[in-house]
C-alpha cells in the first residue's frame, strides 16, 4: 500500500500538506508565539514583518502569524464538521432514495435537484441572510447546503449495486434490508463518498472564508482567515502583509485538500489515471 | 426535443418557486419584527410610527395573504418595494445587474479564449515542461479564493506598479473593468484549461485521428477538425457550469473592487435586512444559473446528435 501511495505524487503531497495543517490546528497554542486575540498592543500596530513578528502585525498590534495558526482551527473545524453533517445527510438520503425507489426516490431527488440548481455560495448567503452573521450560523448554513453531490452519487451507486447478483443472493438467503445496506451496499460506496467529502471540506473552507470576507461570517476578533483578509483590504497600501499571508494559508490548505482528493480518486480507480 | 425543453423549463420554474416560497416564509417569520427592521430603529420606539410602517409595507396582514400578494406581484414582474430606499426592487436591481454583466461578459470571453488555448497547447505538448508549468498554474488557479486573488492582483497592478486603477468604476472606463474581470476569469481559465487538456488527450489517440494524419492532412486541419471539434462537448459542459457560478462569484469580487453590481447589492441588503431586495437578488442569481444551465443542455442536443432527450 505504501508503494502504491509513493507512486501517486498527488496523494503524497496533498496528504503531507493536509497533515501539516491539521497538526498546526491541534498544537496551535504551543506553536503560536503570541495569543491571537489577547496579545493586542497598539504600540505594535501595523508592524512590518521582522524578528519580533515574523509576518508582521495588524492594526490592533496582534501577531499575524499567531492569528494564522489559530485560524487553521476555525477553517478546519468548519470544513470537517460541516462535511460530516453533509456526508451523513447525503449518504442517508441517497441510500433511502436508491434503495426504496418509487415516490420516496422522486421526492428526495426533486429536493436534491432544486438545491443543485442554486450555486452553494448563494444558498449559503440566503441562509446567512435569515440567520444573521456569526460563526455558529456558518456551521448551519454549510452543514445543510453541500450534501447534494454526495446524495446523487450514493443514490446512483446504490441503484447499480442493488441489482448485482450478490445482493439478490443475500436476499435469497434471507438477509434483512438493514443487513444488505450495511454489509453489501455501504462498503461499496465509501470510496467515491470519501473523494467527494475531501473536495467538500475544501469548498466549505472556501465558502466560509468568502462569507467571513464579506463580513457575514465569523465576527472580529475571531482569527478567521477570511475576516483577516477583509481587514487587510483596507491596509493594502500601507500594510500589505495583513492580506498576503492569510491568503497563502488558505491557498495551501485548499491545494492540499484538492491534491488529496485527486490522489484518492486515482488510488481507488487506477484506470482513470491521466 | 421540444418536450424535453418544456419539461426542463417546468422543472426550473418549480425549483425557483420552491426556493422563493421557502425564502419568503423563513425571512418573514424569523427573528425580529420586520416593521422594526424596515423602519429606522431609533424612530421605531414610537408605537404609532411602527404601526404606520406596518401598514405601509402591508406587514399588518396575515402571513399567507402577504405571500399570495408577493407571488401575485411577482407574476406581473413586480419584485416589491425596498424597505430601505422605498424604490421598486426591480429598479434597484436592473442598473446593478447591467454593471455586473459588464465584468461577467468580459471575464467570460477572456476565460473561454485563454482557457481553451492553454489547455490545447498543454495537450499537444503533453509531458513537456510547458505542459507541467501550465497544469501547476491551473491547479493553483483552482485552489485560490477569488477574493484573495483579487487582492493580490490589486496589490501587484495598482499598488506596486500603479498602472491600473485599484477600485471603483471610473465612470465606465474600460481600465476599471480589467482587474475585476481578470479576477473572475483566472479560476475559470484554470478549470477550462484542465478540462480542455484532458478531453483533447482522450481524443488524440483515437483511430480517426491517426487515419487523418496517415492520409496526409495538414497538422492544423487534424488539430482543429478532428481533435478540437470532438473534444468540444466536454469543454462546453464545464464552460456552461462555470458561467452559472460566475454570477455567484461576483459577490466577493465586487466587494474587493468596490464594484457597484448585484453582488454588492445583495450583501448590503443582507446587512440592512432589506427583505424584498434580498429576495429579488437571490431570484436573479438563481434565474441566471438555471437559464444558463438550460441553455447549455439544449446546446448539447445540437452539437451531439447521439444524445436523445426522450
Task: Supply database-style keywords.
A: about 270 residues; mainly alpha; 12 helices; B: mainly alpha
Describe the model.
The complex is a heterodimer of chains A (274) and B (310). Helices cover 73% and strands 0% of the residues of chain A. Chain A has 274 residues and is mainly α. In chain A, helix 8 runs antiparallel to helix 10 and helix 10 (177-214) packs antiparallel against helix 12 (241-268). The radius of gyration of chain A is 22 Å and the shape is elongated. Chain A starts with a helix and ends in a 6-residue tail after the last helix. The model of chain A has no long low-confidence stretch (mean pLDDT 86). With 310 residues, chain B is mostly helical. Chain B has helices spanning 2-29, 34-38, 47-57, 63-75, 89-124, 129-143, 146-160, 174-204, 207-214, 219-257, 262-272, 275-303. The relative contact order of chain B is 0.13. At the A-B interface, helix 6, helix 10, helix 11 and helix 12 of A face helix 1, helix 6, helix 7, helix 10 and helix 11 of B.
Which outline of chain A best applies? elongated
Q: Separation of termini of chain A?
A: 20 Å
Estimate the strand proportion of chain A.
Answer: under 5%
Rg calc of chain A: 22 Å
Oligomer: heterodimer
Sheet with the most strands, sense and barrel status of chain A: none
Provide the succession of SSEs of chain B: HHHHHHHHHHHH
Which of globular, elongated, flat, extended, rod-shaped describes the shape of chain B? Answer: flat
Tally of strands of chain A:
0
Strand content of chain B: under 5%
Amino acid at each position: 500500500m505504501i508503494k502504491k501511495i509513493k507512486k501517486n505524487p498527488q496523494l503524497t503531497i496533498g496528504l503531507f500538506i493536509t497533515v501539516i495543517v491539521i497538526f498546526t490546528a491541534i498544537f496551535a497554542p504551543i506553536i503560536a508565539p503570541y495569543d491571537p486575540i489577547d496579545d493586542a498592543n497598539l504600540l505594535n500596530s501595523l508592524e512590518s514583518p521582522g524578528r519580533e513578528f515574523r509576518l508582521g502585525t495588524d492594526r490592533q498590534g496582534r501577531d499575524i502569524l499567531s492569528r494564522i495558526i489559530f485560524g487553521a482551527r476555525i477553517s478546519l473545524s468548519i470544513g470537517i464538521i460541516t462535511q460530516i453533517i453533509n456526508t451523513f445527510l447525503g449518504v442517508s438520503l441517497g441510500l433511502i432514495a436508491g434503495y426504496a425507489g418509487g415516490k420516496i426516490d422522486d421526492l428526495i431527488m426533486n429536493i436534491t435537484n432544486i438545491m443543485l440548481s442554486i450555486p452553494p455560495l448563494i444558498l449559503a448567503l440566503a441562509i446567512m441572510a435569515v440567520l444573521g452573521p456569526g460563526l455558529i450560523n456558518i456551521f448551519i448554513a454549510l452543514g445543510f447546503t453541500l450534501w447534494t453531490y454526495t446524495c446523487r452519487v450514493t443514490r446512483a451507486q446504490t441503484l447499480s449495486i442493488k441489482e448485482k447478483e450478490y445482493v439478490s443472493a443475500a436476499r435469497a438467503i434471507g438477509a434483512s434490508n438493514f443487513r444488505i445496506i450495511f454489509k453489501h451496499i455501504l462498503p461499496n460506496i465509501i470510496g467515491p463518498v470519501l473523494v467527494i467529502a475531501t473536495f467538500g471540506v475544501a469548498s466549505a473552507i472556501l465558502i466560509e472564508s468568502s462569507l467571513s470576507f464579506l463580513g457575514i461570517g465569523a465576527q472580529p476578533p475571531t482569527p478567521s482567515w477570511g475576516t483577516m483578509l477583509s481587514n487587510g483590504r483596507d491596509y493594502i497600501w500601507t500594510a500589505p502583509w495583513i492580506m498576503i499571508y492569510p491568503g497563502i494559508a488558505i491557498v495551501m490548505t485548499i491545494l492540499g485538500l484538492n491534491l488529496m482528493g485527486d490522489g484518492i480518486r486515482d488510488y481507488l480507480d487506477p484506470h482513470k489515471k491521466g | 426535443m421540444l418536450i424535453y425543453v418544456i419539461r426542463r423549463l417546468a422543472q426550473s420554474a418549480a425549483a425557483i418557486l420552491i426556493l422563493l416560497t421557502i425564502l419568503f416564509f423563513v425571512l418573514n417569520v424569523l427573528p425580529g419584527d420586520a416593521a422594526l427592521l424596515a423602519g429606522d430603529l431609533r424612530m421605531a420606539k414610537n408605537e404609532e410610527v411602527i404601526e404606520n410602517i406596518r401598514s405601509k409595507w402591508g406587514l399588518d396582514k396575515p402571513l399567507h395573504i402577504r405571500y399570495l400578494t408577493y407571488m401575485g406581484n411577482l407574476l406581473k414582474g413586480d419584485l416589491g418595494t425596498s424597505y430601505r430606499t422605498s424604490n421598486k426592487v426591480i429598479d434597484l436591481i436592473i442598473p446593478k445587474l447591467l454593471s455586473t454583466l459588464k465584468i461577467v461578459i468580459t471575464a467570460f470571453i477572456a476565460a473561454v479564449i485563454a482557457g481553451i488555448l492553454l489547455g490545447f497547447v498543454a495537450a499537444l505538448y503533453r509531458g513537456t515542461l510547458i505542459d507541467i508549468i501550465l497544469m501547476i498554474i491551473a491547479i493553483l488557479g483552482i485552489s485560490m479564493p477569488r477574493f484573495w486573488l483579487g487582492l493580490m492582483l490589486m496589490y501587484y497592478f495598482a499598488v506596486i506598479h500603479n498602472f491600473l486603477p485599484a477600485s471603483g468604476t471610473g465612470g465606465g472606463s474600460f481600465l476599471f473593468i480589467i482587474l475585476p474581470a481578470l479576477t473572475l476569469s483566472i479560476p475559470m481559465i484554470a478549470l477550462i484549461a484542465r478540462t480542455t487538456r484532458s478531453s483533447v488527450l482522450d481524443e488524440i489517440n483515437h483511430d480517426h485521428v491517426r487515419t487523418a494524419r496517415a492520409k496526409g492532412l495538414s497538422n492544423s486541419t487534424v488539430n482543429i477538425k478532428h481533435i478540437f471539434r470532438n473534444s468540444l462537448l466536454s469543454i462546453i459542459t464545464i464552460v456552461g457550469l462555470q458561467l452559472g457560478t460566475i454570477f455567484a462569484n461576483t459577490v466577493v469580487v465586487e466587494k474587493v473592487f468596490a464594484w457597484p453590481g448585484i453582488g454588492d447589492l445583495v450583501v448590503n441588503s443582507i446587512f440592512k435586512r432589506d427583505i424584498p431586495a434580498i429576495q429579488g437578488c437571490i431570484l436573479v442569481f438563481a434565474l441566471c444559473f438555471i437559464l444558463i444551465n438550460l441553455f447549455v443542455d439544449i446546446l448539447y442536443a445540437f452539437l451531439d446528435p447521439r444524445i436523445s432527450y426522450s
